[in-house]
Design brief:
This protein is α/β, with parallel strands linked by helices and 237 residues long. Helix content is 22%, strand content 20%. The protein contains 5 helices and 9 strands, in the order αβαβαββαβββαββ. Strand 4, helix 4 and strand 5 form a beta-alpha-beta unit. The longest helix is centred in the first third of the chain and has 18 residues.
Length: 237
Amino acid sequence: MSTAKSTIHHSQLPPADRFRTPVYTKWQINRLEKIVSIFGFDYFRGKTVLELACGHGHIGGQFRTVLGATVVFAEGRAEHLPYIRANNPGADVFQLNQEFEWSLGRRFDAIIHFGVTYHLVNWQQDLRCAMEHSGLVIYETEVTDSLSPTQVRRFKDPQGFDQALNDASWGSRPSAKFIENEIVQNGGTFVRYDDSALNAGAHIYDWPETGSADQIPDENYSYKTELGKRRFWVIRC
């Protein structure tokens, strides 16, 4: 089987922009390599893929040019759309605010759902919408280190080009158990990968779950409290 390391590398990523820092680039490559290690190099060839909250479309672009998929790009911020189109000529690109219930009137072979849940208030609704649009959702987000199946920490998301769209700039970090319960309640199954190969800079996936955040009072909890604690799932639905 071919490996992602032999096909996905820095020189294939689009020209410099705000999503092309060294850490962003390593993070994008690590997640792509993990996907190829799970599914194999040819799995997505000829398949339709929706990339949600795609930034400038770098990851979906690799699915197009390297893995052979037909990719549709959805992004909440209008200012990013020209970059997505420039990086992915001829692709279907549209604006989508995932804070609101959404339906696209079609299904996809796979959905890439990376780094958006913690920028949403209505994250459960958004997860359900994603699962309604595909039998395969590749999902990752920041979470809170809680052992509770109902814990979600709210925080003020800083203003920025890759942050929350809602007017109040609120974000959500549910516990991994909360997310997994939502997956099951929506009729799905999952495999979680707490894999050091995904780590990049402050983005860490292999940290031990201890419930440490359950001891932090709400008034002391902020955007920076658990910055970078992430989990990665493959969801079947």
